[in-house]
Amino acid sequence: MVCVYGGRGDLWAHFDASIATCTSVPDTLRLLRAGFADPARAHASDWARLDAAIAELPGTCDPIRIVRIGTAGAYADRLGAMEEPLLRTARGGRTGENNFPATQASFLWGSHAWFTGQWPKLREVVGNGPALCDEYHYPLRSWTGQFLLACVSAACGDFTTARTLADRMDQWGGSRRANAIRCYAAHAKTLIALSRGDFEAAYRHACRISPAGSLAPFTGHALWALLDTVEAAVRTGHRDRALAHVEAAREAGLDMVSPCLRVVLLASAAMATRDDEEAVVGFRDAPAIEDGERWPFDRARIRLYCGERLRRGRAQAQARDHLAAAVEVFEQLGADPWTARANKELRACGRPVHARPRPEESALTPQEREVASLAAAGLTNKQIAEKLFLSPRTVSTHLHHLFPKLGITSRAALRDALERRDHPLGAPATRTRA
Predict the structure, then answer these.
(1) Tell me: the pLDDT tens digits for 43-101?
(2) DSSP assignment string, 121-174
């Protein structure tokens, strides 16, 4: 953990030398070294071992193992596959059991919730973590939770809270040479700047995580900041740096690590290219990647970028469709600065901005209902497509259309949304007597 939070090559050189002398090394330690310490340089075999370890977790009661494997998979979008064991471990902290792994598990689940748009629940699950860390004297670990709260605050326009949390991280991490904490602070400040449209500041902060054009060694956080770094670089005239950043990510094979990274990398490449037609194709293809609707904030940003590019290419009608879709999701997430930005583009397209309709006013088609029910049951887009004799892209399109109708932004909210629609006002389901 000293090496992880220090984030320096000299520390890891000592670690690797020590491990080389050991005859027996826990598998979790090897997974952490490969997947969390420097994920941009991990190999396909490392991710295969991690996936095998995750597959065994449902029967695991050891909270330490759950947290360590979750940590190893955090930057590689593996936390969704661990949602149940992570929440189970996090709940232990409420009963006074295993407080240390419980806080870590709540922060790991919070990382998943940040990317999947479950922001109200993130605040609920993560919110008590920093206080527990203070109570039990775990100051180092509290910063992960504070980083997540800063991200949500920045995206939703609460810049005062986000800035306060980020400044605390900078101060604490700087005085202790804790580079990982300073990366948290830099990323939070990047999001604040992007949300405010201050792209010079966004570029400056993003380059503190990893210089644009390269993926710094032992800086796993650079994977979470890929799209932010590329956007900041492009909007400040550093397009060559943006292109180099995309190329570095591709050389590292990040598009093969997870669907989420594939979506982000495809969108980053679209943003960086100078070719408008190539950009539009990339922006359209990125959200259509299997299960792409799982990441609503990134998906809405991609629709915004596509709309901007189309509008500048004078394809106003197409631009309006993408921008309107972005507005819907930003509104549902409560991402007010981003809603305002997308609405500004809509007005520039000549479309008046109206309040979105209430979700209950829109009915699901029979096929949308089937897709929603299967997705709520946990099936992937590919599995749904096979069951309904559709293509995965058609399934993704159905989910994109039905999420706004249900007033949600993520798969995780599907079950509750369907239940509310079937039984409004809390009316119980009709039961047949035996």
Answers:
(1) 999 999 999 999 999 888 899 999 999 999 999 999 999 999 998 898 875 555 678 88
(2) HHHHHHHTHHHHHHHTT-HHHHHHHHHHHHHHHHHTT-HHHHHHHHHHHHHHHH
pLDDT of residue 430: 44
* Nearest residue to 375 (alpha-carbon basis) of 406, 399, 359: 399
Give the separation between CA 279 and CA 269, rounded to whole angstroms. 8
Which of the listed CATH numbers 2.160.20, 1.10.287, 3.40.50, 1.10.10 matches domain 371-434? 1.10.10
φ, ψ of residue 218 to 5 degrees: the values are 60, 35
| CA–CA gap between residue 134 and residue 242 (Å, rounded) | 40
Q: Please say whether the dihedral angle defined by the alpha carbons of residues 320, 326, 331 and 334, taken in this order, is positive or negative.
A: negative
Q: At what angle do helices 159-175 and 179-196 cross, to 10 degrees?
A: 160
Long-range contacts of 342-345 (CB under 8 A, 24+ apart): 342/300, 342/304, 342/307, 345/304, 345/307, 345/308, 345/311, 345/319
* 430 phi-psi bin (left φ>0, alpha ψ -120 to 50, beta other): beta
6 Cβ neighbours under 8 A, 6+ residues apart: 177, 178, 179, 180
Q: With contact defined as beta carbons under 8 Å apart, do 322 and 303 qualify?
A: yes
Give Cα 262 distance to the centre of its chain: 12
* Confidence band, pLDDT 50/70/90 cuts, at residue 412: confident
Distance between CA atoms of residues 193 and 205, nearest Å: 9
- The answer on pLDDT for 20 being more than 90 is yes
pTM: 0.83
Please name which of 257, 269, 259 lies closest in space to residue 41, comparing C-alpha atoms: 257
pLDDT digits (tens, 9 = 90+) for 158-203: 999 999 999 999 999 999 999 999 999 999 999 999 999 999 999 9
Q: Could you give the residue ranges of the DSSP H alpha helices within 74-138? A: 83-91, 99-115, 119-127, 129-135
Q: What is the DSSP letter of 413?
A: G
